[in-house]
Amino acid sequence: MTFPKIFRRSWIFALLACWVMLALNGCNPSQFKTAAAQVPELVVTTPSDPKTFNYALIQESPNISDFTYEGLATQNAVTKEIEPALAESWEISPDKLRFVFTLRKGLKWSDGKPLTADDVVFSFNDIYMNKRIPTYTQDGVRIGVSKAFPKVRKLDNRRVEFILPEPFAPFLRSIAAGIAILPEHALRQAVETNQVDGKPQFLSTWGTSTDPKKIIVNGPYTIESYSTSERLIFRRNPYYWRKDAQGKRQPYIERVIWQIVESPDTALSQFRSGGLDLLEVSPLSFQLLKHEEKRGNFTIQNAGPSSGTSFITFNLNTGYRNGKPLINPIKSRWFNNVAFRQAIAYAIDRQTMINNSLRGLGEVQDSPISVPSPYYFSPKEGLKTYNYNPNKAKQLLLGAGFKYDNKGQLLDADGNRVRFTMLASASGNTPPTITPKIKQDLSKIGITVDLQFLNFNIIGEKISNTLDWECWYGGITGDIEPHGGFNLWSVDGNFHVFNQKPPKGQQSVEGREVADWEKKIEDLYIQGAREFDEVKRKAIYAETQRLSQEYLPFIHLFNGLSLAAVRNTIQGVKYSSIGGYTWNIDELRVRS
User: Fold this and answer.
1) Is the pLDDT of residue 447 over 80?
2) Residue 338's Cα: distance from chain center in Å?
3) What angle is formed at CA 230 by the lines to CA 276 and CA 580, rounded to 5 degrees?
4) In CA terms, which of 82, 266, 495, 508 is 20 to 30 Å from 431?
5) What is the DSSP annotation of 53-120?
6) What is the mean pLDDT of the chain?
7) Number of H helices, E strands in the chain
8) 344: alpha, beta or left, given left = phi > 0 and alpha = psi -120 to 50?
């Protein structure tokens, strides 16, 4: 998954959508790239229809915020530095508990209304910290041991004060640069008005059926139009604040066409025919495109290891609903056995996956923290690894009380055959050979895996709400700041996927147990967020990675390279594993 101007800080379904390629449309975007076009435009693809136009409720990535919203600060995806955005400056008190942001003069919303401190206070107090609005941002705004929200108040029309309950090192990166400011004048009524079910009207506001021109934004582009399963068209926001050194308004490109394409093959065909200006390159298409660079007038940019991870994970939730266990107790005992999970890790030949399925364009991944992050703890530094060793896997299983029958099938101590179902997305941009390879590898140690390919939305429902799944193959979007994953590692986090607590409004679960190592990782994340000394912070997050690799809530697989083919007529693209191609969208130009 990729993060532009607004770097989403929660590891949410945004985390999942990276693996999904979506609705096929038979329309060729080359119809837009004609000589008749009178304005500079950029034509790219997106893998899915948007689920909502309401920024606070977005759960997937990429999403419209890549073009439409900004926060108080932003992150330079190349230097990794935090830079001013809507706020021109900020001050931090010596005790690190008080942040005062000063907004730029003359900021406006896309409808021409002033953007002031009132909008900042409204965004945090009335939306992101509103317990009646279950945004995935909410966990990231909670601070420290108490998990309390900061106090946010207006000092004057341009200055906003944040008072933190305790020092919070990720504040600038996670909150100031990670959360967009929303328009009070357009949304307050929806926040304060209840629906028939008693929930805020805001939860159904700015859905995809809303006239896109009524969506008020503060980013470089507005939404001009939306055709379901076909495209979104973004138009330059005339009130956007950025200007270049010569005083010229940005962005330079007037229109961005976001073509919705289901099939990677279709997207590849459209790029090769000249219908697209930029294409994220998969391992399967790399060699073909590399040979066509000169003839096709494009260049492949390599941003290094991606910011995400791929994995399989088991449902460790021991709870039950209405007297019925979420997971078959027999299988739950397997999944909750650390030796079982370690054996699975040793049994998977990840390097062969990289060599064959990724055409060598990737690296083995051993950590939940992304390789591009300065907090990544590598195997060279002492991180435990699980290099392919099926004999070691069998030894672990036998030592844990499992046994083999005369057919080589794995049985547990009670004679139950070890067999489970692995969920995977029915359509994704990951090579389709990955899950069959996992199935094949595990069969070599006597385990039968039943692959179940489902629509992404169904998988999301199982993982977050019904909780009735056994094993899942998926992916997580990473980031520079580890605290962006707090809702993944907090035991009550809204994406603590391997041992999920039901979200608010869902039926409660009885008998859910939290392991000591789970709580320890959460405590370390809280400790890391309070530590401002970078050496000490790195040591804290290194310990979280040690624990994760020892107990394996996620069995990480590989990390592909971030590659993008960019038409040479598009200037200024600085493709990044963190920010993709949109993090500096306002700087891009079209050369005729």
Assistant:
1) yes
2) 27
3) 45
4) 495
5) S-GGG--SSS-THHHH---SEEE-TTT--EEESSEEEEEE-TTS-EEEEEEPTT-B-TTSPBP-HHHH
6) 90
7) 16, 25
8) alpha
Tally of CB atoms within 10 A around 197: 7
- 359/352 Cα distance (integer angstroms): 10
Instruction: Compute the distance between CA of residue 128 and CA of residue 136 in angstroms, rounded to an integer.
Output: 9
The 10s digit of each residue's pLDDT in 295-332 is 999 999 999 988 888 999 999 999 999 899 999 999 99
Query: Two tokens at 223?
Result: 């939404």
**Could you report the per-residue pLDDT of 163-210, keeping only the tens digit for each?**
999 999 999 998 999 899 999 999 999 999 999 999 999 999 999 999
Contact yes or no for 97/163 (Cβ under 8 A): yes
Spatial contact of 248 and 584, defined as CB atoms under 8 Å apart: no
Let me know: does 261 contact 62? Beta carbons within 8 Å.
Answer: no
Strands (DSSP E) found in 345-413? 362-364, 403-404, 410-411
3-state SS, residue 458: helix
Closest CA to 313 of 56, 128, 552, 516: 552
With contact defined as beta carbons under 8 Å apart, do 234 and 221 qualify? yes
| 238 upstream amide cis, omega within 30 of 0 | no
Cα 382 to chain centroid distance, Å, stands at: 27
| Closest to 460 in 3D by CA, of 46, 12, 5, 31 | 12
**CB under 8 Å to 531, separation ≥6 — which residues?**
169, 537, 540
pTM score of the predicted model: 0.78
Provide mean pLDDT across the span 61-90: 94
> Read out DSSP for 270-327?
HHHTT--SEEEPPHHHHHHHHHHHHHHTEEEEEEEE-SEEEEEEE-----EETTEESS
Distance CA 175, CA 74 (A): 10
Residue tagged 């690190």 (tokens)? 96
Torsions phi, psi for 142 (to 5 deg) = -75, 140
Q: Is the pLDDT of residue 24 over 80?
A: no
